[in-house]
Structure formats: structure tokens, C-alpha cells
Amino acid sequence: MPAEDTNTRAWQIYGRRQLDRAYTPPVPERLGWTPWEGTGPGAEVLGDVTGRRVLDVGSGAGHHAVHLAQTHGARVTGIELSPTQHERARSAHADVDGVEFVQADVNEYLAAAEAFDVAYAIGTLAFMDPHRSLPALRDGLRPGAPLILSLLHTDLHGRGPSTEVAPREQMILLRDDPPLPTQMWVLAPQLWEDLLADAHLQQLAKAASARYPRCRTPAAQILSRTSPP
Q1: pTM for this one?
Q2: What is the model's pLDDT at position 224?
Q3: What is the side-by-side strand order in the sheet with 202-211?
Q4: What are residue 40's phi and psi, to 5 degrees?
């Protein structure tokens, strides 16, 4: 099965399990780029998003999009491929002003959508083929618009990033159910730099890294880019 099809299936199952549990993550008080509260920057890396059209790539249950709309006055479109994840967001946050949730493939959606002022992806871009997603994001942004990505660097088992642009198996761990296999692009920082350059996305700021609590191993990297002027 192709890597992205494996991921689509995994997130469909994940979303269904969370719907069955009626679990909705709380809207955060601060935008977080990693699973560890208080680690890394907040929404300030997006710039001033008041009144701006912001794209949340792989918006899942929608809590990050809601935070940006309610706390920062952004107009957020959360795009999610999984129908069950989309259903979670819609059922919990359909009445929130300034947020819309779209169930679609981000690459296909951006080909026809009005260009966005800002785009971000919190851990989600690693589930997409970067040869497809990065050019689509470039073309879906206004000239000079920022694109902020947080990307897995080291997995839960301590394996570092790949040195080739290829997906590898990574499990979504669940508390009461068997783990779900996915295929993720967990890449060395230089590979991401090269892919971003190939997509003509220009450096906005130096890469930042976040670490597992009480661990010296980098766990995630945060990359800031702008679309071509």
C-alpha cells in the first residue's frame, strides 16, 4: 500500500476511536508545536495573524485553529484529509467564529483555493510526501507569506532522522488500543532544507529545535519559510 494511503487509513481509524470515546482535546491557552507543554515557541512565530487568512495543515480535532481564531483574531481554515478527524473538529467547534473546517486533500484543495496569508503544520507534514506537499503549499500562499512547520526529528524509540528522502514505519501509540502503523518522512534537517529550497521556499528564520523533557536528544525541528516574493 502506498505510504500516504497507509496514513489515510491510520488517521481514519484513529479519528473513529476518538469519536467513539467522545474525546475532544481542550483548546490550548498557548499554541504549542510539540506534544510537550511549554516547549518551543508559541503563536508569535506566525507573526501578527489578526484578520489574516491562516491555513492549518492537518488540523485534526481543530483545537489549534480555534485557539488562533479566539485568542489572536485569525481567520483560520483547518484542512484535514481524514473524514473522522474532520468530524471531530466539526462536532466540537462548528459554531466558533473565524474558523472553517474543510475535509480534503491539501494538495488538491490549494490548487483551487484563494491564496493564504499564513500556513502552518504542527507535526502533520511528516505524513505527506514532501515532493507533493511543499510545492502545493508554496503555490497556495501569497507572495512572501510565512510557512511554519514543526517536524519530527527523533521518534519515541530514540531513532534519529533518515538520511534519504523516504518514509519509514512509525506507530501512533494509543492508550487502550493496539498501535496504528503509519509511514512518516522523518528526515535529517539538511534534507528538509534541501526540499524546501527545491520548492523555492525561502528561509525566514534559523531552524529551532525542541527536545524531549529531561533528554538531550532533539525531538522536533521548527522551520520557518516564506513563499517567493
Answers
A1: 0.92
A2: 78
A3: 99-103, 75-80, 53-57, 118-122, 146-152, 218-226, 202-211
A4: 85, 180
